[in-house]
């Protein structure tokens, strides 16, 4: 089979149309990367500095055991301002729940292509369930080495009826168990912005919709020539990310704000990052930071982000509490679903999505 896949159209047909994904290519044991996946030099990721630790230049690791201690809130808000990324330990989501969702992710991607494809854009019985590959294949000059299952949460009943049986129970448990953590984080972040209380209206604006993605990055023949995920910032309010022990996530940071800093896997931890919606609502105080993922030549990697979002019908803009002191708004009001559509209709391109909302 590998030898018959030489033409560009047969690769696209096999990966995208037939639903084999890049996992299908990886399973064939290809010796070299198909040319559609070769990224321009400036987008490739050097993993040479992978194991080097420099505490001044690493994403903060915050212990949430005493979550109501003001020092914890201070550490979280400072990390959201400076780094836009932090790791949490003792966050309250049980380790078994995290292990179960990791196992369920592997189970889903191990299914035959015909089974996974029932969830593709073309075959899925709902827009809220989508199996796909790369990010936006129609818009991309070079494809990304990643398959994904994206699940938009509407209700437990809908999830039970429509989400794939191979993973739905474990994914729902992870979503349920992370809710308290999400509320605690938003509460701390809002207090620093002078929002005294998160009432129902604010709660809807901050976390009225959630999407969970199961990301699968299979072993890649030439990882140095491609990427798992290209440079982007999330369009969420905040993202709660579970990564396995393989590594490969890099965030923009360091003193020069131009370096790429590796986020080393910490067993049992969750990575939190600020998304564009919160950068906009905080008028730029909290930073939605560019990040990307390297492909791996020897191990299959998974990650499971929960994107905590406004509702699609929400108008987002800098919060009145932030502007109360006379601060000038740097973002205009945008309809959140327009913002997300703008993000999905182009290839990953760093921090450029937020230009859509700049005054
Ligand atoms: C996949 O790799 C990724 C993903 C990410 C994601 C980062 C995030 O921050 S996700 C958080 C997204 N926010 C929400 O989901 C908020 C609520 N949802 C909405 O507002 C809507 O559901 C919608 C996403 C705007 C879709 O609205 P709808 O009216 O149904 O519009 P469509 O025409 O179906 O879609 C528009 C356009 O987007 C593409 N698309 C839709 N959903 C997804 C998805 N889950 N994954 C990928 N692409 C999606 C869809 O194909 C349409 O494009 P066309 O070209 O087909 O017109 C970060 C990094 C990654 O690598
Ligand atoms: O796989 C990862 O570590 C991060 C993935 C990511 O950035 C995303 O899905 O938005
Ligand atoms: Fe991301």
Instruction: Outline the low-pLDDT stretches.
Output: none
Whole-Å distance between the termini?
A: 53 Å
Find the count of extended strands (DSSP E, 2+ residues).
Answer: 14
What is the general shape? Answer: globular
| Average pLDDT number | 94
Total helices: the number is: 11
Strand order of the largest sheet: 1-2-10-7-12-5-4-3
Radius of gyration: 20 Å
Structural class: alpha+beta
Beta strand %: 15-25%
Helix content: 25-40%
Bound molecules: ligand LKXUNLCO, 2-oxoglutaric acid, fe (ii) ion
Largest sheet, in brief, is:
8 strands, mixed
In N-to-C order, the SSE pattern is HHEHEHHEEHHHEEEEEEHEEEHEH
Folded structure, characterized:
It is a single chain. The protein is α+β, with helices and mostly antiparallel strands and 359 residues long. Helices cover 30% and strands 19% of the residues. It contains 11 helices and 14 strands. It has helices spanning 8-17, 21-27, 70-82, 95-109, 113-117, 156-162, 168-191, 200-207, 276-281, 320-323, 336-344, and strands at 61-63, 85-89, 129-133, 147-153, 209-217, 229-232, 238-243, 249-253, 259-262, 270-274, 291-293, 301-309, 315-316, 334-335. The strands form 3 sheets. The chain has an 8-stranded mixed β-sheet. A 4-stranded antiparallel β-sheet has the order 6-11-8-9, with no helix packed on it. The chain has a two-stranded antiparallel ribbon with strand order 13-14. Helix 4 (95-109) packs across helix 7. The longest helix has 24 residues, at 168-191. It is globular. The mean pLDDT is 94. Residues 127, 130, 132, 135, 138, 148, 150, 152, 209, 211, 213, 229, 232, 234-236, 275, 307, 309, 312, 337, 340-341, 344-345 line the site of ligand LKXUNLCO.
